[in-house]
């Protein structure tokens, strides 16, 4: 994958992995566009990285995804990279939480349907370029889910499956499809309580970039690589181990 002189849209780019990606890609002479729900965070990101441009929206809402796609197509038709990074998680007990179904709907809209929708909306723009890329961010939990994240696991597992079929569908086209499976990363996603095994955003993005430079279609970062191997050899042990972590 060519990592310089692209125009890149990163969803969820105002903090965490998305913000770190923006920093790294700007440094590689890319035009970086980010989106997010929180205007204050987007403004802060712009203050940190003046070269980026941002669009405020909630991609869990179809009409706002359409507005985002229109903004990209009309204002930045050179966009040739889409990184579906935005995601939310609800750490709940499925049966005890009275809002579990409502939370499930929001989580699936954000983590699964939004990336699929944006790919559909932006592919006509992406495919006009000789070098275009779609990158979907998932997790090592697609191999062994955690009970405390009843919807996050399955939403990302579904995105993993969709990414595999998308790659096959586009194998004879100019658009490359990548998937990055992250382990626990120390980001605001954990609301100030990251697990002990969490790695830094810098480490996570550095390994992602190395994998992209090598052209690996599926990039398993650090703990995600270990979980993948263990789940293949001893799936029961992997499931038990991942659910015993603090």
Structure characteristics:
globular, 8 helices, single chain, Rossmann fold, 15% strand, 246 residues, 7 strands, seven-stranded parallel β-sheet, alpha/beta
Secondary structure layout:
Elements: E1 7-11, H1 16-27, E2 31-36, H2 39-48, E3 53-56, H3 62-75, E4 81-84, H4 100-126, E5 132-139, H5 152-169, E6 175-182, H6 201-213, E7 218-220, H7 223-233, H8 235-242
- CATH homology-level superfamily: NAD(P)-binding Rossmann-like Domain
Structural class: alpha/beta
What percent of the residues sit in helical stretches (DSSP H or I)?
40-55%
- Report the top-level CATH class: Alpha Beta
* Proportion of beta-strand residues: 15-25%
Determine Rg (CA atoms, Å). Answer: 17 Å
- Strand element count: 7
End-to-end Cα distance, whole Å, is: 36 Å
What does this protein look like?
The protein is globular and about 45 Å long. The N and C termini lie far apart (36 Å). A seven-stranded parallel sheet has the order 3-2-1-4-5-6-7, with helices on both faces. Helix 6 (201-213) links the parallel strand 6 and strand 7 (218-220). The chain is 46% helix and 15% strand. The protein has a single domain (7-242), classed as Rossmann fold (3-Layer(aba) Sandwich), CATH 3.40.50.720. By secondary structure, the protein is α/β, with parallel strands linked by helices. Helix 4 (100-126) runs parallel beside helix 5 and helix 7 packs across helix 8. The chain has eight helices and seven strands; from the N terminus they run E-H-E-H-E-H-E-H-E-H-E-H-E-H-H. The mean pLDDT is 96. The relative contact order is 0.13.
């Amino acid at each position: 994958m060519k990592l310089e002189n692209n125009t890149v849209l990163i969803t969820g780019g105002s903090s965490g992995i998305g913000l770190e990606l923006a920093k790294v890609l700007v440094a590689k002479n890319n035009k970086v566009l980010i989106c997010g729900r929180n205007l204050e965070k987007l403004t802060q990101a712009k203050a940190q990285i003046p070269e980026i441009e941002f669009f405020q929206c909630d991609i869990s809402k179809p009409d706002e995804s359409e507005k985002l796609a229109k903004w990209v197509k009309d204002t930045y038709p050179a966009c040739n990279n889409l990184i579906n990074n935005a995601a939310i998680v609800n750490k709940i007990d499925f049966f005890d939480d009275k809002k579990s179904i409502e939370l499930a709907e929001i989580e699936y809209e954000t983590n699964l349907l939004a990336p699929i929708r944006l790919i559909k909306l932006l592919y006509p723009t992406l495919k006009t370029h000789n070098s275009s890329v779609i990158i979907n961010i998932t997790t090592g939990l697609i191999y062994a889910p955690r009970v405390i994240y009843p919807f996050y696991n399955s939403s990302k597992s579904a995105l993993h499956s969709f990414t595999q079929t998308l790659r096959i569908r586009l194998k004879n086209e100019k658009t490359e499809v990548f998937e990055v499976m992250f382990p626990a990363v120390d980001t605001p996603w954990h609301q100030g309580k990251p697990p002990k095994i969490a790695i830094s955003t810098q480490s996570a993005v550095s390994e992602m970039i190395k994998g992209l430079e090598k052209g690996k279609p599926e990039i398993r970062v650090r703990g995600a690589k270990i979980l993948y191997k263990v789940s293949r050899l001893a799936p029961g042990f992997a499931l038990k181990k991942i659910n015993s972590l603090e």
